[in-house]
Structure formats: structure tokens, C-alpha cells
Design goal:
about 220 residues; mainly alpha; 11 helices; flat
Length: about 220
């Protein structure tokens, strides 16, 4: 079982290193030292739930109802665009206002944000449910599949803690408003690029699901995505 657990960790390592909105949010929470450990744990728990659902067989549900994947994708595109623009304009100061209203509300806001960044992201479903869940299907025994999923989720925990705590240690290097603004602008640009990539993915999913309708419109999505 130890071999399967390690296999899950290696599989997740290959998926999670890619820069995405969830990683950016965890990194930012560390730089701001804004409940960064809590944010890491919440992101881990969300990944754990999705991965375990995938290894338990939820990938079959998404394959049967691809419209849900498209819907989540459209929501994700809108979310990335709005949040990316907010970063570039450096208007992401909600946590400061919440801090003035009390630690408890600010703490809840950090948790809610971590859940949103972990769930309103189609690639979280693709990685956790479809890819890891699909990979685990090579094991016929449910316990083996869950062990692989637990290995993948364990790497998520290590990665998020390393990312957030490492960023919090580097805070002195970014202690000026100018440097922080530069970081937020770069993060915003990355998020907008990710929204463009995701929108192309969504159009590809639509082309796969409704090829006749796409062909009738005359847009060659399927050939260029």
C-alpha cells in the first residue's frame, strides 16, 4: 500500500506544480500573512474531497454529464477575469475592511475565499476527479484507489503549507507598497492569461459536445484548440 500511496503523491506533484488561481491565492495569503496556514488547510481539504470523490468513481458522473463541466468552466472564466482585473487595479483590500470589523469576520472571509478558489476552478475537477480518479481506476479494489487518493491529497497538504509559509518568510523582501503592487499586477496578468486559456478549453469542450452546432456556426474551434 505504501507504493500506491507514493504513486498518488507523485501523480499529484505533476499536476499541482502548474501555476493556477489556487496557488496564486495561497501564495498571496502567505505574503500578506493573512491566515495563510488556515488557507492552506482549507485548500487541502477541498482537494482531499475532490480527489476522494474521483477515486470513489465520481469521474463517471462528469463523463456522463459533460454539460456540468462546461457550466463550471464558464463560471471559472468569469471569476478569473474579475479577480485578475481586481489584482491589476490593486483593489483587493476587502480583508483590511473586514479586519476593522473584527478578527472573526476576517477569518471567515479567508476561509470562504479559499473554498471559492479551490472549487470555482474547472481544472480542480479535471485534476482531482477526472485525471486522478481516472488513473485510480486501474485498481479494482476501492481501498487501493482511496490509498492512491490519500497520497495525492497528502502532497497537496505539503505543497500548500510550503507555499504559504515560505511566502510569509519572504515578506521582508516585499515590505513596500510598490513591490506589493508589482506582485499583484503580475498575479492579475497571470490570472487573465489563465482565463483566456480556460475559455479556449471551454470552447473546445463545447465543440466536442455539440460538433454539428459548432460546424453550422462556422467557427473551427475543434481544429484550433
Amino acid at each position: 500500500m505504501g507504493k500506491i500511496f507514493l504513486e498518488g503523491m507523485i501523480l499529484q506533484a505533476g499536476l499541482i506544480f502548474a501555476l493556477g488561481p489556487q496557488n496564486i491565492f495561497v501564495l498571496e495569503s502567505g505574503l500578506k500573512r493573512h491566515y495563510h496556514v488556515t488557507v492552506s488547510l482549507v485548500c487541502f481539504f477541498c482537494d482531499l474531497v475532490l480527489i476522494m470523490l474521483g477515486t470513489a468513481g465520481a469521474a463517471t458522473f462528469f463523463n456522463r454529464f459533460p454539460q456540468i463541466k462546461i457550466l463550471v468552466g464558464l463560471v471559472g472564466v468569469g471569476f478569473l477575469i474579475l479577480y485578475g482585473i481586481g489584482k491589476i487595479r490593486h483593489r483587493d483590500q476587502k480583508h483590511l475592511a473586514l479586519e476593522a470589523n473584527g478578527k472573526r469576520s476576517c477569518y471567515r472571509a479567508a476561509i470562504y475565499s479559499a473554498v471559492i478558489f479551490s472549487v470555482v476552478n474547472p481544472h480542480a475537477y479535471l485534476d482531482g476527479i477526472v485525471l486522478i480518479g481516472g488513473f485510480s481506476s486501474k485498481y479494482s479494489d476501492l481501498y487501493q484507489r482511496l490509498m492512491l487518493g490519500w497520497g495525492a491529497a497528502s502532497f497537496s497538504l505539503l505543497w500548500f503549507l510550503l507555499l504559504s509559509i515560505g511566502a510569509s518568510i519572504m515578506v521582508p523582501l516585499f515590505n513596500s507598497e510598490r513591490k506589493l503592487r508589482l506582485i499583484m499586477t503580475c498575479a492579475g496578468v497571470v490570472l487573465l492569461v489563465l482565463s483566456l486559456k480556460l475559455s479556449r478549453d471551454v470552447m473546445g469542450w463545447i465543440a466536442e459536445l455539440y460538433p454539428d452546432s459548432v460546424a453550422a456556426i462556422g467557427i473551427p474551434w475543434g481544429r484550433h484548440l
